[in-house]
Specification:
38% of the residues lie in helices and 18% in strands. It is α/β, with parallel strands linked by helices. Among the domains are: 246 residues, 3-Layer(aba) Sandwich (Rossmann fold), CATH 3.40.50.150; 215 residues, 3-Layer(aba) Sandwich (EreA/ChaN-like  fold), CATH 3.40.1660.10. Strands 10, 11, 12, 13, 14, 15, 16, 17 and 20 form a nine-stranded mixed beta sheet that branches. A seven-stranded mixed beta sheet has the order 5-4-3-6-7-8-9. Helix 14 packs across helix 17.
Length: 696
């Protein structure tokens, strides 16, 4: 990757991630734009250097998210003549940025391997006003004190006393402090010899601050050497230099919140449309949106029964009364085809194909709520005059294994010679079919031969033979359309896994584009009168331009693309919950658990909805809503997103993002308390990893 491209990415980081999110200090912005962040991460991470995320470095540590670094430096008010202490220097990146702001910088790092590498990087850049020391940062640096500013890049339950003592009067100490279940970023200003002023600046998530002596021994993971029976953390060596997978690194995101306002809750209560039964909800929703061509129904979790049941009620009414004939869901194409066979009265299982929805996370589509919905769709198709009313499709990019088998089976029926060619070409992917993530890792190597040409050639050959194959098709083109889409899934899945380690935005956007193009093809295949209902997570169907996904990370989604393509013919309906239970895992490929959903965080849209006191309602966000309600909700707030993984212990950092609800959705459906879906297991079926690294 050439220097010019890195400079462009650095400039974009400053403009979008920093200035775009409220960093105003011009000196901080200039310093962040000067220091090459790519030189402070391991070589294989350099292409991700300007992503809006923390990244893994040596000794099992991370380099902080750029926004966090900028915010802490802005709070520190560093002047050109200041002397600054940084505790937890890590790779040396923050110290490098501080060196562009201050006269002198002392960085302390507990891990010797990190301290040494930081010195090498800084020396290579010619930054000669920085000194990196190996030692215990909780003791500070008494021989060079006092300091104009101290910045601590790790969190604990108290502020180490030596750090407060080593501040000049008027000096600023920036440190994350644990308060209850969360960490709060604090600015502590020394106003006298023993007097201090403290200010909170939002919630954050940092790694623990580890010290050998001054740190309280009762804190888990930070025991002192004097604590009987507890080991002091061992010093990292070269043997410990192992990088975690990119997808396993949690972002360190500031989440500033505000206390829920009961007056706002009252205003929302007056504007909301309450309901007690799902039948009442579908009447409300369809009265507003039935004239749209495309209605997208979201969910803030992948494992909540009420979301499935509500979407089923709305969708069945749209099919029965408003001629919607496509149900397209966030699921694999080949697996969804089995459910399409069910609603048409055909056997779900096709010999030679894997059991549908047999990979992780099975509970998303193998649950009682979905099976009841399929029964309703089957009954609607049975009762239809003049042919079936509705079809069920999958929009997603996964399901590589099932799609390969489906293409091969189709070609065996219509052209055995091309089937033999397809089998040979797809053999390139055979070693990776059970674990496509391993293909992604291998594809990151410059010496790896990808399967791109083989997958693309097979799709081109299939399209070239379209007319010939369709002449043999007794299903009015449906069989060829299915084979074509499976071939597209294979080609796109290969590209998706090949780009997986280039950056989360690129692979996310490729997936979003595939889902959107699949929806386009479905509407075209079913003709100009076709109408579609889409089921997907809120993060997919809510307009990404109204969230930090689009504003900060450069991600788009199917909701945004649909609005751009079809305008007001699209209705986007988000779904949220306050508390209760959800089906989710604690880790990738882990077992399904029934987890308790935490109460909404202060400053979130969920907290506002809870304040209404209503158990369930729909909030119309279209222009017919009162302007004052739209204005109240247009102030960006936190919004919860739980995927197949749910970690309540890190919920604020892991499961909330900022959004502007009225711009994101056309309506919002609220259930104050919800329960988990009832999963239906498959005996003896293993789990695959094809959804990695996304849980949404």
């Amino acid at each position: 990757m050439d220097e010019t491209r890195m400079e462009r990415q650095r400039r974009a980081m400053v403009e979008r991630q920093l200035a775009g999110r409220g960093i105003k200090d011009e000196r901080v912005l200039a310093a962040m734009g000067e220091v090459p962040r790519e030189l402070f991460v391991p070589e294989r991470m350099r292409e991700f250097a300007y992503e809006d995320t923390a990244l893994p470095i040596e000794a099992g540590q991370t380099i902080s998210q750029p926004y966090i670094v900028a915010q802490m430096l802005e709070l520190a008010e560093i002047g050109p003549e200041d002397t600054v202490l940084e505790v937890g220097a890590g790779s040396g990146y923050a110290a490098a940025v501080i060196s562009r702001l201050a006269r002198r910088v002392i960085g302390i790092e507990l891990h010797e391997v990190l301290a040494r590498k930081a010195r090498e990087r800084l020396a290579g850049l010619g930054y000669d006003n920085v000194e990196i020391r190996h030692g215990d940062g909780t003791k500070g640096c008494p021989d060079t004190a006092p300091f104009d500013a101290i910045i601590v890049s790790a969190g604990g339950p108290v502020v180490p006393p030596p750090l407060k003592e080593q501040l000049k009067i008027g000096g600023r100490l920036i440190i994350p402090v644990t308060k209850g279940a969360h960490q709060e970023l604090m600015r502590i200003r020394k106003t006298g010899k023993n007097s201090f002023e403290e200010e909170g600046h939002g919630l954050v998530a940092f790694v623990p601050l580890v010290g050998a002596k001054e740190w309280p021994p009762m804190v888990e993971g930070t025991a002192s050497a004097d604590t009987p029976g507890v080991e002091t953390p061992r010093e990292a060596t070269e043997a410990d230099v192992v990088l975690a997978p990119l997808g396993a690194v949690a972002e360190l995101v500031v989440m500033s919140g505000e206390r829920p306002n009961s007056a706002i809750g009252y205003e929302l209560q007056q504007a909301a449309l309450p309901f007690l039964r799902m039948e009442d909800l579908n009447g409300i929703a369809n009265a507003i949106f039935a004239d749209r061509r495309i209605i997208m129904l979201g969910e803030s979790t992948h494992g909540t029964a009420e979301f499935y049941n509500a979407r089923a009620a709305i969708t069945a009414d749209l099919v029965a009364r408003h001629k919607f004939n496509i149900v397209a869901v966030e699921a694999d194409w080949a697996d969804a085809a089995a459910y399409n066979r069910i609603i048409h009265g055909q056997p779900a299982i096709v010999p030679g194909l894997p059991a549908p929805f047999s990979r992780y996370p099975r509970w998303m589509w193998r649950n009682n709520e979905v099976f009841h919905f399929l029964t309703r769709l089957r009954d609607l198709n049975k009762a239809a005059e003049g042919g079936p009313r509705v079809n069920f499709y999958g929009l997603d990019i996964y399901g590589l294994n099932s799609s390969i088998e489906a293409v091969l089976q189709y070609l065996e029926r219509v052209d055995s010679q091309v089937a033999a060619i397809a089998r040979e070409r797809y053999a390139c992917l055979t070693p990776w079919r059970s674990d496509p993530v391993e293909y992604a890792r291998m594809a990151a190597s410059s010496t790896f031969h990808s399967c791109e040409d083989e997958a693309s050639k097979m799709l081109v050959d299939l399209l070239r033979n379209r007319m010939e194959y369709m002449q043999r098709d007794v299903s009015n083109g449906a069989a060829f359309f299915d084979a074509e889409q499976n071939a597209r899934v294979i080609a796109k899945a290969e590209e998706y896994y090949r780009t997986l380690y280039r950056g989360s935005a690129e692979s996310w956007n490729l997936r979003a584009q595939h889902m959107f193009e699949t929806l386009e093809r479905l509407l075209e295949f079913h003709g100009p009168g076709s109408k579609a209902v889409v089921w997907a997570h809120n993060s997919h169907i809510g307009d990404a331009r109204a969230t930090e996904m689009g504003q900060v990370r450069g991600e788009y989604n199917i909701g945004q693309l649909a609005r751009e393509r079809w305008g007001d013919k699209v209705g986007l309906i988000g779904f949220g919950t306050g508390h209760g239970f959800v089906a989710a895992s604690s880790r990738w490929d882990g077992p399904m658990e029934i987890k308790s959903v935490s109460r909404p965080h202060e400053g979130s849209y969920e907290a506002l909805c809870h304040d209404t006191g209503l158990p369930a309602f729909l909030l119309d966000l279209t222009p017919q809503q009162k302007p004052e309600i739209i204005e109240i909700l247009s102030e960006p707030r936190l919004e919860r997103a739980i995927g197949v993984i749910y970690r309540p212990e890190t919920e604020l950092a892991s499961h909330y993002y900022r959004a502007d609800l009225p711009r994101q959705f056309d309506a919002w459906v609220w259930f104050d308390r919800t329960d988990a879906v009832t999963a239906i297991p498959i005996a003896g079926v293993g789990q695959e990893r094809e959804t990695y690294p996304f849980g949404l």
